Amino acid sequence: MPINKQVLAIYVTLAFSLRKSGAFAIATKQQQISAISATALGWSKPKPADSLEAFEDDVKTVLHELRPNQYDPTVPSWFSSRQLSFTSYWGLEEWKKHSSRRRHFRYIIGLPKSRLLHRCMPQLGALLLWTIVALWFSHIRPTTTGRLRVPLTSLSLVSTFVAALQTLRSNQGLSRLKDARNAMGRMVLYTRDIALLVATYIAPRDPRLGLLAARHLALFGWAVKSHLREVDSDDIVHCLLSRKDAEFMCGQRKKPIAVLHRLRQIMENMSSRLLIGTTEHRLIEENLKQLNSVVMEAERIRATPIPPVYAAHAGRLMIVYLATLPFALLGAELNALTTLALTLIVGFAMLGLDEMSHLFEQPFRFMPLYQLAKVSTLDVADAFCCPLPSLEESDDTFISKVPSYWATDDMKTSLPYDGRKVNKRHTPIRSELGDREQTTLDTGS
Fold first, then answer.
1. Among the four residues 71, 101, 212, 420, which has the most C-beta atoms within 10 Å?
2. 3-state secondary structure (DSSP) of residue 110
3. ∠175-176-178 over CA atoms, to 5°?
4. What is the pTM of this model?
5. 213-254 tens-digit pLDDT
6. In Å, how far from its chain's centre is CA 81?
7. Would you call 68 helix, strand, or coil by DSSP?
8. Helix or strand or coil: residue 437?
């Protein structure tokens, strides 16, 4: 018996060792594949010494070459190609069109191209066939149909439960959508805030670590999108990071957490060398903690749906209601055309609400993560590439610099300075009637 225990202990030890070595071999194989891919695409070449100009060029490459599309290519084109879509990043023009007093005419005219109607079309087709069958039986065998007729009063009892369940499910879906929007908004906010803190307190004291932090912050939005959508973003990783950091990042299971880990390492290095104070270190750590909570909240929304039994129960009651609705309308002595029209209208209303609830339940499939990642990268780059005016009283001039990665739309909200020397009361004014800019100069009066 003691011999058997020794043999069993040896067997367990060998099995654990083999399993550990197998996992190590798999990880090593993944790193080899990543290295081969990087070599094939030219990413494995060592980058020259980092500089602010190199960082600006890499951001321009990401925004205008690697991800130049206006819409997210990972979202179905029929859902994102429309101007007013939840999948896009809205500006003032979209809000004006959305709140226009002619919007109701647009709703009616655009009904055949409705995205919701497109998604509900199979269910509505089945309901149409079922209603036609009910109408056919009402003309062929009126006695049989008469026994199948359902009073509208009895059907209203079922409709009360269906409406309550659909309302609760819609509220739950909207609540999850609100949480997802808040999480993504906080992601843009805290990456921008950390970038401003790093550009102010770290980059002047250690430019190399400041640029390293900037590159990881510019990557964070794309890493979150890649993590939530399970899409590849290795090209952006290799563009923004050095070969060493890129190989490390591509081999991680959760890239957003790896970015935060790297940033914390930079903060610890700066703090240990007494290059940043306790207050600055605490502010940056608090923001990094908030970014970690953003990732956790997004993972919670994606991994924990509304209980499927709730959706199944609400769906079954809705199917029962829609299946008995034609017989109830026939029992109310309505003609065939009215019965068919009312059934399809009620069906579209209920099926559309159910479809929207399912879309809101997992909002990251259609949220504008692509545009939000671009905005986050732009804000981070602006913190480093847009110089601030001097605080010296004797220096009264400032030469504005337009970064090379700005697009035309980015320049619309800025007032580029033409380099003229003016006094401190130079006030740019944008007319409300057009894009004309007026410059008020102090004439001494």
1. 212
2. coil
3. 65
4. 0.76
5. 999 999 999 999 999 988 888 999 999 999 999 999 999 999
6. 16
7. coil
8. strand
Residues 142-159 as b/e (b if ≥16 CB within 10 A, e otherwise) read eeebeeebbeeeebeebb
109 CB neighbour count, 10 Å cutoff: 10
Torsion of Cα atoms, 194 then 244 then 49 then 47, to 10°: -120
pLDDT digits (tens, 9 = 90+) for 120-167: 999 999 999 999 988 887 766 655 545 567 777 778 888 888 889 988
Cα–Cα distance, 384 to 55 (Å, whole number): 9
- In this structure, are residues 50 and 211 in contact, taking their beta carbons and an 8 Å threshold? yes
Length of the chain as a residue count: 445
Closest CA to 37 of 229, 240, 251, 262: 251
Find tokens 């590159």 and name the residue: 215
- Reference 188, options 264, 290, 55; nearest CA is 290
At 351, list the tokens: 């099926």
d(CA 242, CA 240): 7
- DSSP class per residue in 2-51: HHHHHHHHHHHHHHHHHHHHHHHHHHHHHHHHHHHHHHHTT--SPP----
How deeply is 75 buried, as exposed, middle or buried, from its count of CB atoms within 10 A (0-12, 13-18, 19+)?
Answer: buried
Q: Give the C-alpha distances (Å, rounded to integers) separating 369 from 238, 360, 426.
A: 20, 15, 39
Q: Rounded CA gap, 149 and 127, in Å?
A: 17
How far apart are alpha carbons 291 and 239 in whole angstroms?
A: 23
Residues in CB range of 135: below 8 A, 6 or more apart: 326, 330, 336, 339, 340
Three-state DSSP class for 407?
coil
Residue 250, amino acid: C
